[in-house]
């Protein structure tokens, strides 16, 4: 997989999402629960806005000095025996990872969930070497068994699957014979995964945050699979997006606290693990520790009006409050990064060509911006994208005409009044049908256009005033 | 100490500096005086007794059972906990505190138990995987989140708190602090003053859990199925 999870056109993906009733109820249920828990745990602090300000300041300072902190990190990691590879492109990252696997003659890699390894298509690169790659996050493992079904949520990747589907997958792929009770499914996964951890040659993880002052990487999980992956195999590789770095452990505290509360409403997740290459004093750390720092388009965002998108800590809080995500689900975005942050980030990393609908898949209600723990102005960045896309495309003819017509009408009161009345019979013809003309078509494919049969507001208001006055007089 | 290799650093970092529209920064960057630091205010000035109460309350949220005991009753309390969870095989750290708190006889009396040894990694890992119980000592304990912080060191194998079905963490009350902030400060200090941090720092809050199947809580999909804390009132 790469950042792109589907080659289908945007509206086809959306339609599929809207027709999937289980997915939609799972998504709205998850949104309500995750957002509810977040609201509770942030309210409890009483100083959430101060935390957000602090986190934003840390992220901005680090990005402004990113070259300095990455160098400090690399030197500290290497001084203690770690190997650091800076990869400008995904190809460079994969080649390096392949070279380690080849040298170790590894037959099995066990992985903890990582967005950046998805983004660079690492699993395919490893499979080319005739080496197995096992996802160990429960949700990711389910998706992998199910013929590599793509994830649909950053924090809950298999959200779109119900327990019967999961039972069926376990049955078909691993001969599972028990019920669809989640506890039983979980116990089966435990047995299966234990064997994989103990027999893997190489463990690969992402990196939630790297710590510059000590050359450490940190991993935030609830399941503990990242601990398994880093404690058992003899070779460890951590792959990190280049922006995921903090100056010292003190800033790590703040960002980890923000991540846990924003993602799942927990004070801390069950496990937070800080790993530092350190052969000199070690008990049973891996014998080799490699860290791959990935650019893959990120540096192009630096120094632009979109720079704040790199503040993202992948908590999914924006996704959990987004009304558009709620209706269309994660797969509709066609990217491993769904929701508002995905609509901002995907076009930046991958270009507009396949992603120009994404910034328009937003209500601009700004719920995402309010939810973001590191204060990325998400809805403003979506607007910037829209401007850039329109500028880039110079506007489609229909859209341009429609917008110009509206601008004229809106600035000429007589025209506006007439337009409102004249539009009713025309618009009503399409409001309950399958499709409308031009720009209305995309809307009516998905939603019912509001009927114009009722009075216009101005008429309604005048009528009400008239009646009220009449009432008073009588 | 072997020094690791760094590949492609200069080109990569020069590109970043160029994108930021300035020269490379290789030294002299200082963390600013942060405008706000709300993390310092959480439970500031709370006594050890108050922190203990906060910790116990949080244990209810993280599915972790908890006992409190005195230093003199500790061997008895640990013994009861071991029995409750099925006692054996058990694996525990080669940690000085097991001796100073007089716990060796309790663990050695079990039908099958072993202190972690760094000598034979494969064999110890296999034993830990088979073990019913793993026993560790908390190095720093975070009241807010119910977290034990474990620093790796010789004899303190990572697998002891990870592979057995039950993790029992012994928590001297003297190790209690308000939250992660104080642990982070301590690790920052170690780096500055001792020049190194432990190769593995584990923040552990209760048993392993997952919500990947229909958002329902599943405990112990990877790591321990149960977690149990014993708070020792040593301060």
TrEMBL record, chain A:
One GO term of the biological process aspect: lactate metabolic process
Lactate utilization protein B C-terminal domain segment(s): 394-465
Domain of life of the organism encoding this protein: Bacteria
Keywords: 4Fe-4S, Electron transport, Iron, Iron-sulfur, Metal-binding, Repeat, Transport
An MF annotation (GO) of this entry: 4 iron, 4 sulfur cluster binding
Record bears the keyword Repeat: yes
Start and end residues of each LUD domain: 70-294
The protein's name: LutB/LldF family L-lactate oxidation iron-sulfur protein
Biological source species: Alkalicoccus halolimnae
Lineage of source species: Bacteria, Bacillati, Bacillota, Bacilli, Bacillales
TrEMBL record, chain B:
Entry-linked InterPro entries: FTHF_cligase-like_sf, LUD_dom, LutC, NagB/RpiA_transferase-like
Highest taxon above the source species: Bacteria
All copies of domain LUD, residue ranges: 55-232
GO term, biological process aspect, one: lactate metabolic process
Signal peptide extent: none
Family classification: Belongs to the LutC/YkgG family.
General function of this protein: Is involved in L-lactate degradation and allows cells to grow with lactate as the sole carbon source.
The protein's name in its UniProt record: Lactate utilization protein C
Source organism of this protein record: Alkalicoccus halolimnae
This protein's encoding gene: lutC
